[in-house]
Automatic annotation (TrEMBL), chain A:
Belongs to the ORC1 family. Its main location: nucleus. Residues 180-315, 340-390, 404-488 are annotated as: Disordered. Component of the origin recognition complex (ORC) that binds origins of replication. DNA-binding is ATP-dependent, however specific DNA sequences that define origins of replication have not been identified so far. ORC is required to assemble the pre-replication complex necessary to initiate DNA replication. PROSITE patterns: BAH. One of its GO terms (cellular component) is nucleoplasm. Residues 436-445, 463-472 have a biased composition (Basic residues). It is found in: Nucleus. InterPro entries: AAA+_ATPase, ATPase_AAA_core, BAH_dom, BAH_sf, Cdc6_C, Cdc6_ORC1-like_ATPase_lid, ORC1/CDC6, P-loop_NTPase. This is Origin recognition complex subunit 1.
Automatic annotation (TrEMBL), chain B:
GO terms for biological process: DNA replication initiation; polar body extrusion after meiotic divisions; protein polymerization. Component of the origin recognition complex (ORC) that binds origins of replication. DNA-binding is ATP-dependent. The specific DNA sequences that define origins of replication have not been identified yet. ORC is required to assemble the pre-replication complex necessary to initiate DNA replication. Binds histone H3 and H4 trimethylation marks H3K9me3, H3K27me3 and H4K20me3. The lineage of its organism: Eukaryota, Metazoa, Chordata, Craniata, Vertebrata. One of its GO terms (cellular component) is cytosol. Residues 59-202 form the AAA+ ATPase domain. Belongs to the ORC4 family. Coiled coil: none annotated. The keyword Thylakoid does not apply. It comes from the Eukaryota. SUPFAM superfamilies: P-loop containing nucleoside triphosphate hydrolases (SSF52540). Pfam families: AAA_16, ORC4_C. The keyword Nucleotidyltransferase does not apply. It is found in: Nucleus. This is Origin recognition complex subunit 4.
């Protein structure tokens, strides 16, 4: 994006266009348009409120994107600067690294996100604006055009609130859509034509729908005096306009106004931010009687689509207020966008596409500021009548979208030659540093500074509103600290082999599971392509590559999705063993799906709602449930839900389940659960020795560390025992260690031979009972002998301690050994019991405790005979 | 003059002795990593190499150290950790977590303890916040984030590993082993257990994830080495302040180890139990008998100690019983002989006792029934007899079925040592039919 006007080199001159609108209460002067002149160039760029603009940022290549909400000058300040209020968008690269995965897909190159984060500073220096840009809103299901030549177009699909990505709310969408469409309109001189389009003014619809983009205009009417702030665009914490109830707000601003009357300053303007006062402007229209209806009209048109924005519930307290406002001020039906937006998205930057709208309003219009005041007031009411207006809204939205598409005119900037230029012009320093908008913590500092400054100027009543919100407490980040010293890389061949043989090493391919891979891949792919859902059950003994294969499938599908071979999807994985309790699965799924945290029950409800109800079209979700058998509950509701969701058409959920036993569905599931699971089954057979050998060879590719015979030996051994690939790898790994230890020369340990492998196999699989018996003390061995003798005598496999003791004493007498006391024998017995050579009852039974052998009698005899 | 000299000597000795006792007791009672390891060089090498690979190369591993009680499992791991921490490139780069199955009795507690010891970010002060589920996912998330090369390796030491296998679903073990088998934060899971059948306790999917490395500690030394250990354990270190005394002491130890009686005692002890903990117990008892007047350990001390060690505890109890109680035990013994170990009740014992009393004309032993009952109850309290079923309130105590927890040989041995045992009682014990 190097072709953005390079501000570093050129000087830009900023000047207001049109007459200022005076906001007495806030001591603002607001404008509707700003003119940017490039020095040495005759062209002037006019940017109007409502357009989307690029704003200088930390990164010259990727300037910030925002929608202009308001232009104003704070006039109580001697060095008045031009300020602007914006609604931010974020680029994907501005989203913190750790949150990026939440998007769940790859963003398109020119995709941006409506920044729905109220805590962000939205008050910037107007002189950091680089130029207009176009932002196009896309429906959630629309695909972002990938390779557009025009880099001045951005696309908005979702909003980002620092926690998660959300599709644009329909209101927001409509507003953006309208902006987009509005822009071409604006290019024509505002005239009769526009008016005709806007006809709705005065019609009932208007009441229903109206809320208007003109919200900016409201802000413009204030003449602002600026603080001596360096020309930096700052995104500031904007509190006043946020979720605060409007009613107090109004009261306050009224107070302010009254206060201002008495203030020593000759003019009654006050420095303030327009958002705060906006509701109070109701009264203003009267003061500006000069409005011609004609002028109002264009604004109205703009408003209609906007009205759909912002339908949150936040505003319930506002509603009453707003209604009242409407009644009083309805004639001037303009609605101010700002209002509509601010409650929804507050001062946050979000991913709406700033479509550049040059509004037809011209200088004259600016004179007619009155509307804005009302607009703001009225802007909110739409919420109350949201429902009733839903239909209308939809229709309008459709139309708008259509219009927007048809008008592909990308010329967003309109140069108004006749613009009145107010007399502020600023030079941009060459150095980009001071003029950059900061999203860094500094923001808050400077904000605080400003607010304190302001508070000194304002009536005290206002200040509390402006104090910055406490930040949400930083969440603990799960992380193990990093090591100071990097881990050593393998140096010798054996070390390298060991690294590759570790189970955790991810092989490039999964040999010997091609068929299974293909089956699963085809299953999932078909579901993806058909936009349907389904279940699959995968079984197999541990260590046969079930999970690895599914991971591989998902990896391949993700690649395919990137290449647009299959539709994009989301992948979620849960493991029954990693849950404390079956119902926690809901919590995990919900968290991975949306980032929300909820209790198990609530999460279940949310998920059911998501998967069962007809929601907005979404991408397919692939859910991998590992260790399914642990999700068994008495009512089996967890399993039931997991398998029931995919049966709903809207869910578009593919569930892959993994467990060990082949007949799990028949064994533990109720009919209604297993029926939903369906018959798509797959079972992973244990590896044969050929396959194990192949796996080893493929892992050790090009690495001559093992003798061929050795590999074959271990493959056969493991295949005979379990067919567990993990075991096979572990044995080989241990063999390399043994080889390393046994070799004399540390640098050239040589190959791992059959001998080494046999040693490793013995170490892992040989029973330790016999060695344990051989190494036990004389008395312990005598006790074991006595047990055998007693068993032989009684013909049972169980004896009481007393019986064995008398046998033991008899044996000792025969051999002429000193015979043990009862306490010693008891100690020996419990010692053997703790090793589990014997199975013994709890020792409180004393003489009567029953003893069994945990080893076969032959083994004991064998071990004892050796000596 | 000479007496004063000996007194001086005594004072010096007393001073030295208290130091000797302190040093040796520390050695016997603590599993300090400064103790020497005996006969486990191979196992030690295996373990230390494995830990080094985890610490230096970031390779995940899991291993079980299996050996009977007192075989030096904890000493081994302590040694290995000590050596590991002495390596410069390791000591800053490793975290360890110690868990004990007796303390962390379920996964919830274990998770909190792990989180606390790792000092993750949800730890405030010494407390861990969040629910069980949150803690688990938090910990897993934390471990998952790491990778082989950049994360600090964590060594998990699970003492009494078999008890962890009894936790519900073996969630903790599954997750630890799963991490050790996947490309996450490098961890080494080291389990200590005395159960030889430990692998059978693991669920199959847990077992599959375990690397099947086992280090067995078996006390596989013979008697000559046992004597050598005995010598080493008693010897004073070179840095002992009073060189002269240390020299003398070590000389006496050397002499002891060659003494025939001492070897006999050691052999006997060795035959009973090979583990070093019981040797320590023996030496501790012997050490306590060393006084300023007899500043060096003698063979007699060891023999005495051995006797204490191998004493039959129940026979000792019998020595303290009254004649009436002895008589009751003899009556029970006869009942056992007659009815072949069938349980008996108080009434039967009382009848048997009455027979003996009537036979002997002098009614010295003729106690009233409640007195006998009291004696009977006392025996029950001493757990020399044990009721067959749990005592229920309504059943009559006289008819409750009991079993004797003494063996015939024990009774006869105890009677022989019983002080002032009446001759007729002794005769009656020898044969229930002697009156015929």
């Amino acid at each position: 994006m190097a072709h953005y006007p390079t501000r570093l080199k050129t000087r830009l001159t900023y000047s207001w266009v049109g007459r200022p609108l005076l906001d007495r209460k806030l001591r603002h002067q607001t404008y509707k348009e700003i003119c940017v002149k490039v020095e040495g160039d005759s062209t002037e760029i006019h940017i109007q409120v409502g357009q989307c603009v690029l704003i200088e940022g930390d990164d010259d290549k990727n300037p910030y994107v925002a929608k202009l909400v308001e232009l104003f000058e704070e006039d109580s300040d001697p060095h008045s600067t031009k300020r602007a209020r914006v609604q931010w968008f974020v680029r994907f690269c501005e989203v913190p690294d750790c949150k990026r995965h939440l998007l769940g897909r790859k963003p398109a190159a020119q995709e941006i996100f409506w920044y729905d984060y109220p805590a962000c500073n939205d008050n910037i220096n107007a002189e950091t604006i680089i130029g207009p840009i176009r932002v196009v809103a896309l429906a959630p299901d629309a695909v972002v055009p990938m390779d557009l030549k025009d880099e001045k177009i951005f696309f908005v699909k979702e909003s980002w609130n620092e926690k998660k990505f959300r599709p644009l709310s329909s209101e927001l969408f409509a507003e953006l859509d309208k902006l987009q469409e509005g822009s071409p309109k604006c290019q024509k001189p505002r005239g009769a034509k526009t008016k005709s389009v806007e006809s709705p003014s005065g019609t009932p619809e208007e009441h229903v729908v109206k809320r208007i983009e003109s919200r900016h205009s409201a802000s413009k009417c204030r003449h602002t005096s600026t603080h001596p702030v360096t020309p930096r665009a700052r995104k500031r914490l904007e509190l006043g306009s946020l979720g605060l109830p409007r009613t107090p707000n109004t009261r306050m601003s009224q107070q302010t106004s009254s206060a201002s009357l008495g203030s020593p300053e000759g003019n009654k303007r006050k420095v303030a931010f327009s958002e705060i006062t906006s509701p109070s402007k109701r009264s203003q229209p009267d003061k500006l009687p000069t409005l011609s209806p004609v002028l109002k009209a264009p604004e109205k048109t703009g408003k209609i689509p906007l009205s759909c924005t912002g339908g949150d519930k936040k505003a319930s307290p506002e509603c009453h207020m707003i209604l009242r406002a409407r009644i009083t001020a309805l004639e001037a039906t303009e609605i101010i966008k700002e209002k509509t937006l601010s409650p929804t998205s507050g001062g946050q930057r979000s991913s709406v596409m700033p479509s550049v709208i040059l509004k037809p309003e011209s200088i004259k219009k600016r004179g007619a500021k009155e509307p804005e005041a009302q607009n703001e007031v009225t802007s909110t009411p739409h919420r109350t009548c949201r429902k009733s207006s839903l239909l209308t809204l939809n229709r309008i939205r459709q139309q708008l979208r259509f219009l927007g598409n048809s008008k592909s005119d990308q010329e967003e900037e309109e140069i108004l030659s006749a613009a009145e230029i107010s007399n502020s012009s600023s030079e941009e320093e060459e150095a980009s540093m001071p003029s950059r908008p900061r999203r860094t913590p500094r923001r808050s500092v400077s904000r605080n500074l400003r607010s304190s400054l302001r508070s000194s100027l304002e009536t005290p009543s206002k200040t509390p509103k402006k104090t910055s919100k406490p930040r949400t407490p930083r969440l603990a980040i799960p992380q193990i600290r990093n090591r100071n010293l990097a881990a050593q890389e393998p140096t010798s061949v054996l070390e390298q082999a060991r690294l590759r043989l570790h189970v955790s090493a991810v092989p490039e391919s999964l040999p010997c599971r091609e068929q299974e891979f293909q089956d699963i891949y085809n299953f999932v792919e078909s579901k993806l392509l058909d936009h349907t859902g389904g279940c699959m059950y995968i079984s197999g003994v541990p260590g046969t590559g079930k999970t690895a294969t599914v991971h591989e499938v998902v990896r391949c599908l993700q690649q395919a999705a990137q290449a647009h071979d299959v539709p994009p999807f989301r992948y979620i994985e849960v493991n029954g063993m990693k849950l404390t309790e079956p119902h926690q699965v809901y919590v995990q799924i919900l968290q991975k799906l949306t980032g929300q945290k909820a209790t198990a029950n609530h999460a279940a409800e949310l998920l059911a709602k998501r998967f069962r109800t007809q929601g907005s079209p979404q991408e397919t979700t692939i859910l991998l449930v590992d260790e399914l058998d642990l999700l068994w509950t008495h009512k089996q509701d967890v399993m039931y839900n997991l398998f029931d969701w995919p049966t709903h058409k809207e869910a578009r959920l593919v569930v892959l389940t993994i467990a060990n036993t082949m007949d799990l569905p028949e064994r533990i599931m109720m009919n209604r659960v297993s029926s939903r699971l369906g018959l798509t089954r797959m079972s992973f057979q244990p590896y044969t020795h050929n396959q194990l050998q192949q796996i080893l060879v493929s892992r050790l590719k090009h690495l001559k560390a093992f003798e061929d015979d050795a590999i074959q030996l271990v493959a056969r051994k493991v295949a005979a025992l379990s067919g567990d690939a993990r075991r096979c790898l572990d044995i080989c790994r241990r063999a390399t260690e043994i080889c390393e230890l046994s070799s004399q020369k540390p640098n050239s340990p040589g190959l791992v031979t059959v001998v080494h492998l046999m040693e490793a196999v013995d170490e892992m699989f040989s029973s330790s009972y016999i060695t344990a018996i051989k190494n036990s003390s004389v008395l312990e061995q005598g006790f074991l002998r006595a047990i055998l003798a007693e068993f032989r005598r009684s013909g049972l496999e169980e004896a009481t301690f007393q019986q064995i003791y008398s046998q033991h004493v008899a044996l000792c007498r025969m051999e002429g050994l000193p015979y043990p006391t009862m306490s010693e024998s008891m100690a020996v017995c419990s010692h053997l019991g703790s090793c589990r050579l014997l199975l013994v009852e709890p020792s409180r039974n004393d003489l009567l405790l029953r003893v069994r052998l945990n080893v076969s009698q032959d083994d004991v005899l064998y071990a004892l005979k050796e000596e | 003059m000479s007496s004063r000299k000996s007194k001086n000597n005594n004072l010096i000795h007393a001073d030295c002795l208290s130091q000797v006792q302190r040093i040796l007791r520390e050695r016997f009672c603590h599993q300090s990593p400064h103790n020497n390891l005996y006969g486990v060089q191979v196992q030690y090498k295996h373990l230390i190499e494995l830990l080094k690979r985890t610490a230096i190369n970031g390779e995940s591993n899991s291993v079980l150290i299996i050996g009977p009680r007192g075989s030096g499992k904890t000493t081994l791991i302590n040694h290995a950790l000590k050596e590991l921490m002495e390596i410069e490139e390791v000591c800053e780069n490793i975290l360890h977590v110690h868990l004990n199955g007796l303390l962390q009795i379920n996964d919830k507690i274990a998770l909190k303890e792990i989180t606390r010891q790792l000092n993750l970010e949800n730890v405030v002060g010494d407390k861990v916040f969040g629910s069980f589920a949150e803690n688990l996912s938090f910990l897993l998330e934390a471990l998952k984030k790491g990778d082989r090369t950049s994360s600090c390796p964590v060594i998990f030491i699970l003492d009494e590993f078999d008890l962890f296998a009894h936790h519900k679903n073996q969630t903790l073990l599954y997750n630890l082993f799963d991490i050790s088998q996947s490309a996450q934060t490098p961890i080494a899971v080291i389990g200590l257990t005395c159960r030889l059948d430990i692998l059978e306790l693991l669920e199959k999917r847990v077992k599959s994830r375990f690397s099947h490395r086992q280090i067995h500690l078996m006390n596989s030394f013979g008697f000559p080495q046992y004597v050598k250990i005995f010598k080493e354990q008693l010897s004073l270190p070179a840095e002992f302040p009073d060189k002269l005394f240390a020299e003398k002491w070590n000389e006496s130890v050397q002499y002891l180890s060659e003494d025939r009686n001492v070897r006999e005692v050691l052999q006997k002890h060795f035959n009973v139990s090979k583990n070093l903990r019981s040797l320590h117990m023996l030496l501790m008892l012997a050490l306590n008998r060393v006084t300023a007047s007899r500043p060096f350990m003698s063979a007699a001390d060891l023999m005495e100690a051995n006797q204490l060690c191998s004493m039959d505890s129940k026979a000792n109890i019998v020595h303290g019983l009254s004649v009436l109680e002895i008589c009751l035990i003899i009556a029970m013994k006869h009942l056992n002989d007659i009815y072949e170990e069938e349980p008996f009740n108080f009434q039967m014992v009382y009848n048997e006792f009455q027979k003996f009393v009537q036979r002997k004309a002098h009614s010295v032993y003729n106690f009233e029934k409640p007195v006998v009952m009291k004696a009977f109850e006392h025996l029950q309290q001493l757990e020399l007899i044990k009721p067959m079923e749990r005592t229920s309130g309504n059943s009559q105590r006289e008819y409750q079925l009991m079993k004797l927890l003494l063996d015939n040989t024990q009774i006869m041995n105890a009677l022989q040592k019983y002080p002032n045992c009446p001759t007729d009682v002794r005769q009656w014990a020898a044969s229930s039919l002697s009156w015929l």
